[in-house]
Amino acid sequence: MATLVFDIETSAQPVENFDETQQEYLFREADNLTGVGIALTDLAWLALWEGRYEDSLRLEGASATVKDRVGGPPGGFAGILEGRPDEEARAHLPEDEADRAWEEGRAMRR
């Protein structure tokens, strides 16, 4: 089951810092896993454009896991972008670092 954070400002804190009521507010089950996969790809593009190549690979790796599970469509931003953020991010990193970041993303679960 996927969980989304709805309050970015406070979510940078460890989850243990929040009481049960706060956690229920911040973390909710996502009903549209296809949309989650697309949103992760969108975030991967943004990380790429900001030069955060490892984050881009992690996000796209997580997106690939979600899309594999639910059969989600490729790409993000309503399919208007060509290419893949992970391929572009890999061009900026040594192969071992890129592979590690990708696998970290593929392993993300909640």
Which characteristics define this entry?
two-stranded antiparallel ribbon, 5% strand, 2 domains, 2 strands, 110 residues, mainly alpha, single chain, 55% helix
Helix content range: 40-55%
Give the count of helical stretches.
Answer: 5
Helix and strand content put the structural class at mainly alpha
Distance between the termini: 6 Å
- Taken together, the total number of domains comes to 2
User: Can you tell me the overall shape?
Assistant: globular
Give the percentage of residues in beta strands: 5-15%
Number of strands: 2
Strand neighbour order, sheet with most strands: 1-2
Low-confidence stretches: 1-11
**Biggest pleated-sheet summary:** 2 strands, antiparallel
H/E element sequence: EHEHHHH
Q: Compute the average pLDDT.
A: 79
- The Cα radius of gyration reads 15 Å
Please tell me about this protein's structure:
- Helix content is 55%, strand content 5%.
- It is built from 5 helices and 2 strands, in the order βαβαααα.
- It is mainly alpha-helical and 110 residues long.
- Helix 2 packs antiparallel against helix 3 and helix 3 packs across helix 5.
- The radius of gyration is 15 Å and the shape is globular.
- The chain has 2 domains: 30 residues, no CATH class; 75 residues.
- A two-stranded antiparallel sheet has the order 1-2.
- The N and C termini lie close together (6 Å).
